[in-house]
Amino acid sequence: MADNLPSEFDVIVIGTGLPESIIAAACSRSGQRVLHLDSRSYYGGNWASFSFSGLLSWLKEYQENSDIVNESPAWQEQIFENEDSIALSRKDKTIQHVEVFCYASQDLHEDVEEAGALQKNHASVTSANPTEGAHSAYLPSEHESCTVSCEMPTEKTPKSDLENSLEINDVEATREKEKHCDDKTCVKSVSEEETSENVLTAEDTSLQSKKNRITYSQIVKEGRRFNIDLVSKLLYSRGLLIDLLIKSNVSRYAEFKNITRILALRDGRVEQVPCSRADVFNSKQLTMVEKRMLMKFLTFCMEYEKHPDEYKAYEETTFSEYLKTQKLTPNLQYFVLHSIAMTSETASNTIDGLKATKNFLHCLGRYGNTPFLFPLYGQGELPQCFCRMCAVFGGIYCLRHSVQCLVVDKESRKQISRSVLITDRSVLKADSDQQISILTVPAEETGTFAVRVIELCSSTMTCMKGTYLVHLTCTSSKTAREDLEPIVQKLFTPYTETEIENEENEKPRLLWALYFNMRDSSDVSRNSYNDLPSNVYVCSGPDCGLGNDNAVKLAETLFQQVCPNEDFCPPPPNPEDVIIDGDSLQSEVSESSFIPEANSETPKESTSLGNPEGSSQ
Known about the structure:
- The protein is an alpha+beta fold.
- The protein contains 18 helices and 19 strands.
- It has helices at 18-29, 52-64, 160-165, 169-178, 190-202, 216-221, 240-248, 277-282, 288-302, 319-325, 330-340, 350-363, 381-392, 480-491, 497-500, 549-562, 583-593, 612-615; strands spanning 11-14, 34-38, 49-50, 95-102, 124-125, 149-151, 228-229, 235-236, 256-258, 261-266, 269-272, 372-375, 396-399, 415-423, 437-441, 451-456, 468-475, 493-494, 509-519.
- Helix 10 crosses helix 12 (350-363).
């Protein structure tokens, strides 16, 4: 570390995942001296988001990551006789079974300079374990030339305070450039669009039939347009994370977009599910009788606690069986079970199903016609938002700084199966190509689990224009590819030369696919370890759930243990009310506090969390 940095801290947080970042922000806000470390060169851990080349570099890190066997580490010489140490494993074992497939044309052009590209003719790369994943398929990227970051980024604006400590400045600069677009759905500037149109009209007309073809070289060249999440989640509009973002005023650092559609897959067809009252009565899928049935049942679910006689006899049965006793057609039962309660025939009892349905309905209308929000630039923005708050109040950040000894992690049997796809169009055509959709595909076999599909368009700033980024998630029963590939085959068709001419193909074409398993460590706690010191606390990793409530609950619980009787993430003081001795410190806090609200620069159609009523529809 630099000589001018403090050597003593009240709280040391290891890892920059979402719960760790929330805890760091809360402790820093309450006046604790916080040191926040991460052995990686980026923020977020398993909650991070990457550009396309960044994702390939991340995979390469796992390929090359291995424990260095050293019988006499240097740090052991610094342990005194009256002290004890527990060595930390330097190998991250949370990612396994990495498999990469490229279906798009791989004729790379000479002008493609984006780092991290697959080598030519490597159509598929498979692996059975993380150390062999995607062997020799990745080239060095900007991550590998990063230097150690160890600084206090408190004198910067909200966007730049983490960008300087994050080592991918050119990626972030590109993001900032994109934000100057007036229309939120635009990715290029107006001049860039005009230039590309002129070039297109100058080309030979024989190339017009291929103008919509997405090649691998295009994906690589536009790789910085992608922001690919390692963990796929959405934010419930009345969930704990949204409430915390508003309460702490951290929402000023982020922008959000509404999920526009809830989808269902029935008999091989993707359909839109009516959720709100307006959707129900405007739906052409439902008969008038079904509309009345659905509205009556949803009204009951909103206040089911007041009518215990309606469900008491079915408390021990599954929610699926309970729905069969209601006056609902099979069509409505399917919609309620899989797309509103988002559960399966065997996963939830009646009470859990009614609670999930009520929560879904309770979140409707706060910011839009669906209960969900998605952060622009990906889920990885959320940990960075809380890191910014921590830094504003004096937290010190050191990336690429691993802790050699503390506690040894234990293995966990629970796994999450993940897949990330790049496709050329939406699973369900609509008037607008800027749809953000969630689809739940129920399990078809005993012992398997429902698959959650989240489809993101380019206006979420997570993919290049003309493509969609699709996330598939489920609880693992096998490897990620074995769990998810059947669903991928149902919804998409591989992008091959023989399919290019067939423009009438009903299914979207699959351009690129990644499969991997991530450890579900959501049940890890102090009880998972032996002989932990009383001042060491354990954060769990991402879970398989759709929302972020577990991370917020964990962060608040641990914060109360570290700082009892302190308010959890209170809003920052008004800059005009802050009086601090010392000109430099006064200037530092003032500059960090005078931050424009998110909606002051938010593009059209984006959501400001500070005024939900104003954005309700």
